[in-house]
Amino acid sequence: MAADPTTGGGEAESFFRAAPPLRDQDRVAGDLADFVARHSGSGGGGRLAGVVCVTSGGTTVPLEQRCVRYIDNFSSGQRGAASTEYFLKAGYAVIFIYRRGSKQPYCRFLPEDSFLDLFELGEESDIQVPESHAAVVKTAIRNYRKAIDEGLLLKLPFTTIFEYLQLLQMVGTAMNCLGRQGMFYLAAAVSDFYVPWESMAKHKIESASGPLNMQLNQVPKMLFILRKQWAPSAFCVSFKLETDPDILLQKAEAALRKYGMNVVVANELANYKDVVVMVTSNGRTTVRRPSKEDDVEEQLIDLLVEMHSEHIMQLNQDVHKLT
Amino acid sequence: MAADPTTGGGEAESFFRAAPPLRDQDRVAGDLADFVARHSGSGGGGRLAGVVCVTSGGTTVPLEQRCVRYIDNFSSGQRGAASTEYFLKAGYAVIFIYRRGSKQPYCRFLPEDSFLDLFELGEESDIQVPESHAAVVKTAIRNYRKAIDEGLLLKLPFTTIFEYLQLLQMVGTAMNCLGRQGMFYLAAAVSDFYVPWESMAKHKIESASGPLNMQLNQVPKMLFILRKQWAPSAFCVSFKLETDPDILLQKAEAALRKYGMNVVVANELANYKDVVVMVTSNGRTTVRRPSKEDDVEEQLIDLLVEMHSEHIMQLNQDVHKLT
What we know:
2 copies of one chain form a homodimer. By secondary structure, the first copy, chain A, is an alpha/beta fold.
């Protein structure tokens, strides 16, 4: 039997073969096909600026098949949620692949652990929002409703690395027909190491018998396969997060070359909300938020949208030359 | 220098010594002292049934000091959040030690990832809740406001195992003055293994150099120290979660004896919302929820409140005999 060309062969293929199959796979595939069909061909001169797949939040690595313990990656989903809002504002349709429970577009302002603190009951038991929060809550409800009602936002949740990579593969191959109109904005914090499903403990690991030793395998580098096979014409933006600033830009440039990204956005854990560096084959651009009240994502998305439209134009020029 | 008697010496002491100190320690200590003082002496014949410390959600084990990756324990916080509601209803004051981002009392009904789906804007831009949800949202706001306004709910958040155990120690020693009026209801999913802070990687672990090997140490068993030193007269309820039903009750009984708990609540991952078994020195009691619309916690808390009031009475009888 020939290797499935969408899985990239080798390590990636065996990763997908061993992964527990995605629940709701058929429903997700249907929703995806509808969403892409509805928005394909409307880019370029059309109303829509493009279709972007935003990934957001951290993936987990289960340590047990009936999972009690897992390794997680730090990520609130703030970056992906904020970016989704700015992509929608810029006229994109967004496929939002997000970690269950992570930050959601238009909900970022909410108090983390008690949404009830936002509300009070009026004298006639009507639900009221204190004046101080009313404007921001109303704007959030309005923008969210608009995105949903106009069919511009498709939300696909994941928890594990297995779910995430299967979703990315499905979205990647579904968006291939969009060619250069498609963009990937890969802000999720993806596990580098995992325990292969078949070698995983079936039950909760016993704690009575001394220290725990674990060996984890490397997750196959799917960026490469996304770029080469799933959606080769798309505009690809990936992220590189490090805690050590001395190696950050160097690693971002290595990723740019190794995976053929259009942009690698480099950020440090200590100040990722304040500043990012866009690394491209033309050099580096530092993006800083003007103040603590602003989002660094606003300017970042502006710049990326511009670069993406150049990426689309390039094709149009190429086509023009041929005719 | 003599060993600090509140830390339990040995392993526990070295765990606390090496742990990064709790942020806001002074503020938390102040809030705790106020809360306990306000509610002490009001139990027994008084208005208040008692003071309970409910722990909820999973603890994380950081794998790096500037933490990007961590091991997490599966727990939505559903059990602790629901139980807190029923304890408040039964007339308890509740200290709710919860994992940041986990389920909160009176918010359990919310759609997990999009609270905005609950709301819409009316014609005059007023915030409306669709009729279908209005009753439940209003009840939630009313009950939550009542608990907060009457000072019956103190919420203390944690993320890591280091924060959790430091909070438990602070609450344990602060509640000691309540004697038998105090209850611990330890529903949090606490890590069994951890990486000692001083042996932890400082920066994000590199992924380029092949598989990852990790060795994790056992977390000292703090239940024992809670029972023996921090709050020896309190009524103590702990939980035992397993995925393998064959070893569950046996492990629950071992925990009952080993840590001197009053009750160990045994539950299986597969059906923890449907059924639990209360294990005590007098035997086992199975608690099942009557239907999917009910909470198993309702009956569980009823039974525990009854047992706790017997535990309090016992002291009163002992005192009576002496006079």
